[in-house]
Amino acid sequence: MPPEARRIGVVFQDYLLFPHLTAIDNVAFGPRRRGQGRAESRALAAEWLDRVGLAEFGKRRPKQLSGGQAQRVALARALATDPALLLLDEPLAALDARTRLDTRAELHRHLAGHSGPAIVVTHDPVDALMLADRLVVIENGRAVQEGDAESVTARPRTDYIARLVGLNLYRGKAEGHQIVVGSSTRTASGSATGSGSRSDAASAEPVGEGGAAASPEGPVVLVASDPLEGPAFAAFPPSAVALYPERPDGSPRNTWRATVSGVHRHGDNLRVQLDGPLKAAADVTPAAAAHLRLEPGREVWATVKASEIRTYPA
Q1: What is the average per-residue pLDDT within 237-253?
Q2: What is the CATH number of the domain that holds 33?
Q3: What's the CA gap between 61 and 27, in Å, rounded?
């Protein structure tokens, strides 16, 4: 089937508008190639430019448009052919932060009104979560997880997905309320450490009220509220990690000594990377970071309540 006969609309990462055509002629190009007359095609193009809020920009050429305006012209051009399938390749990647926010909302509205399926390729988790009904996460050419946004973000299954949704993630073996994660850990910072030679070990001493059991070479045991058996994931957000200069009294079930390996700004808070028997990320306020004198090399105690740890089958 020749390209002009395929009912596929495409929005490219760099838009690829025809530089010698005006906005209205860019949008009219597809209908013209599908056999519609010049007047009919331009009328349809004008209608689509009005739908995307660019009715008054029809006579402008691409170089006279801003990034957000060019993106909307490219979307109108793709939709003007009434495609059965819509493909969008990083449609917001070329936009600045402010324009991206507004254009994402506009794009969501048009995708919701599109009668056929649409496939959006993006490296931005916010774009994926805001635009998609169903997510397919691909790593190294292989689909590693799929589902709706709620299920993927609630139960990530790889380091990459955990980083995207901002969770500390560990894989191990569950024995009731205990999850033996071994010395090789997965974290919200994306690091993977340890030899992994005992990553499936399940022979740690039972964990008492004092906290997590760990040794430099051996497994680490986390305690969660919900019981589970067999291969499992354990996840908790950086905001669930509390830091103390000394071992706290009456501490939660999961307590371990850690060393600060890095501190950087994360929204209104600071994200602290922790080394130790359990590598993790913790979010603290700037005031707390100053009080604890958090800097690389600083030793602290980290705690996570059992109720904050989410476990699910691996």
Answers
A1: 87
A2: 3.40.50.300
A3: 12
